[in-house]
Design goal:
There is one protein chain. By secondary structure, this protein is mainly alpha-helical. It contains 4 helices and 4 strands, in the order H-H-E-E-H-E-E-H. The protein folds into 2 domains: about 5-75; about 80-170, no CATH class. Helix 1 (about 5-25) runs antiparallel to helix 2 (about 40-75) and helix 3 runs antiparallel to helix 4 (about 140-170). The radius of gyration is 29 Å and the shape is elongated.
Length: about 170
């Protein structure tokens, strides 16, 4: 099974589990003047509710098995991605974390380098002496702009690479 198949199977299993839960909520009890919806006796309906409970338990076990297999695969499989002209190799899991929030954290770091709305100009003190006021930057604006573009682009690059990786990588199901 490929990674993408496992991810989609989990989604489908969750949908099935939700459907079963709805049936359990609706049919786990009925008024004594009603007829059971499933079968012709309380025993038949109780048996059906118990089957649904067991089915949800089995689905939960299968979702867990698939999730663990996905995690194992994500940790074990290295993926190389070219970013800013450099090929970087990380596990799928590491790339997922970069994509989820760490690339944005780096972007925010570089975006914090600003002039703080300081203005250049002349300043006259109380004694009439005029000073030239400039801005002293503790960073290189060109470097900041380049880094910001790299970190803005990184999530898209990761997404496109992992889409391919997920479709061709076999799930580790040990």
């Amino acid at each position: 099974m490929k990674l993408i198949q496992a991810l989609k199977q989990i989604k489908n299993l969750q949908r099935k589990a939700d459907d079963i839960l709805s049936k359990i909520k609706t049919h786990s009890a009925y008024s004594s003047h009603e007829r059971p919806v499933y079968g012709d006796s309380q025993e038949t309906q109780t048996k059906q509710v118990n089957e649904w409970i067991q089915s949800r338990t089995d689905i939960a076990k299968e979702i867990l098995r698939l999730r663990i297999a996905i995690q194992k695969t994500n940790i074990a499989v290295p993926v190389s991605i070219e970013i800013d002209g450099k090929t970087i190799t990380k596990s799928i899991a590491e790339w997922i974390h970069r994509r989820r929030d760490l690339a944005n954290m780096d972007l925010q770091t570089w975006a914090a380098l600003t002039d703080r709305n300081l203005k250049q100009g002349k300043l006259k003190d109380s004694q009439g002496i005029v000073y030239d006021i400039g801005i002293v930057r503790c960073y290189v604006p060109e470097q900041r702009d380049i880094k910001m573009e790299i970190y803005r682009s990184e999530p898209t690059i990761i997404d496109s690479t992992l889409e391919i990786v997920n479709s061709v990588t076999d799930l580790i199901e040990e």
